[in-house]
Amino acid sequence: DTGVSQDPRHKITKRGQNVTFRCDPISEHNRLYWYRQTLGQGPEFLTYFQNEAQLEKSRLLSDRFSAERPKGSFSTLEIQRTEQGDSAMYLCASSLEARLAGSTDTQYFGPGTRLTVL
Amino acid sequence: GESVGLHLPTLSVQEGDNSIINCAYSNSASDYFIWYKQESGKGPQFIIDIRSNMDKRQGQRVTVLLNKTVKHLSLQIAATQPGDSAVYFCAENFPMNRDDKIIFGKGTRLHILP
């Protein structure tokens, strides 16, 4: 399977614990995105990488959240001191930068990591 | 505030019939639109996209229509099948967004009735 993969698929943790999620993008894609999705809502943008550089962070990303993409390939999203409000599906997407005028880079999503904070 | 929304939260269609899912967007500067399908427990799956210089685009059993005058987007699914049951999201990208960050609407749940 050459799509976007995420690990783990499910995570249950107690409030106050730290959690880390991993995303492996499609191999030739240089852009990687993290989104959060709560029940009945569309995905909300959290942060974005182009290669190893983190270029944008949403105001939804509090200082308890940190994301890295050290070698421009896989990425990790860490949540420190988890709160019940962090319970959600965390989605990763990747795309190949559109370099031709008029083209677009389509984002392809992974299966997500469902986080439950007790 | 949210710039992309949907007219109906749920839609039920008889198997074999055609379905139309609607979406309204508020940013007239949006230049790229995407429809995603999300099945339970899975991530969104790309279905079809359209740029603002087009008003119609067809795929396999799916057609996206864009009406820029009224800022309306629709997804038509022909000859619906049980596997089409899912939540469908429209998403938009506009030039003020840096780096192709797309904004999702809330989704429409499509039920295919046997």
Could you explain the architecture of this structure?
The complex is a heterodimer of chains A (118) and B (114). Chain A is mostly beta strands. Chain A has strands spanning 5-7, 10-13, 19-24, 31-37, 44-50, 53-57, 65-68, 75-79, 88-95, 108-109, 113-117. In chain A, the strands form 2 sheets. In chain A, strands 2, 4, 5, 6, 9, 10 and 11 form a 7-stranded mixed sheet that branches. Chain A has a 4-stranded antiparallel sheet with strand order 1-3-8-7, with no helix packed on it. The radius of gyration of chain A is 14 Å and the shape is globular. With 114 residues, chain B is an all-beta fold. In chain B, 0% of the residues lie in helices and 53% in strands. Chain B has no helices and 11 strands. Chain B has strands at 4-6, 10-14, 19-25, 32-38, 45-51, 56-58, 62-67, 72-77, 86-93, 103-104, 108-113. In chain B, a hairpin with a 4-residue loop joins strand 7 and strand 8 (72-77). The model of chain B has no long low-confidence stretch (mean pLDDT 87). Chain A binds chain B through residues 4, 6, 31, 33, 40-45, 48, 50, 55-56, 91, 93, 95, 98, 102, 104-112, 114, and chain B through 4, 32, 34, 36, 41-46, 49, 51, 89, 91, 93, 98-107.
